[in-house]
């Protein structure tokens, strides 16, 4: 554990709490992509297959349970909650997210560090997480006018990944034989997808105006 890893984890946790705060207190999921939330639920479900058989630390287990529980809770809220689901903009959230699954699975089967079921699923989750934000970014571009909590949620998600890149760099120079190029490449791609959003987010913050993305 190092400061960058801890900051990344806390930022990731904060992004989930911000989204849950919006959905639970305001009873609205406007501007939130169900497609992205379903992809994240699948990411955590395939990444943490070892949660009940491999013990790393109390911290590690708690974080896994939080991300698993929160991701499926958000999907349930948007799909099933009698009030929240009314605010879901199905007509705008039309990104065909299922088409991301097959390429990620094929890539995981072809390019992995060890050809075992658990390792392939873990690699699949890494590839899928890299592109899971795409439906959310597309939805924000279509709606353009973004509420404060949704903007903060996406910003924190991007910041979490950027902090993890710093964590990888730190570990590369401080730990012997620390090389995970699959994770690094996927993480860099994921961070680059946020670049446009970051630009407009900081512009809106600097000029004290409401966040809007170009169509």
From TrEMBL:
Q: Report the membrane topology from the UniProt record.
A: Multi-pass membrane protein
Residues passing through the membrane, by range: 55-78, 98-115, 121-140, 152-170, 182-202
Q: Which superkingdom heads the taxonomic lineage of this protein's source?
A: Eukaryota
Q: Which GO terms describe its biological process?
A: protein retention in ER lumen; protein transport; vesicle-mediated transport
- What's in the GO CC field? endoplasmic reticulum membrane
Q: What molecular function terms (GO) are annotated for this protein?
A: ER retention sequence binding
**Location of this chain's protein in the cell:** Endoplasmic reticulum membrane
Q: Which family does it belong to?
A: Belongs to the ERD2 family.
Official protein name in the record? ER lumen protein-retaining receptor
Biological source species: Malus domestica
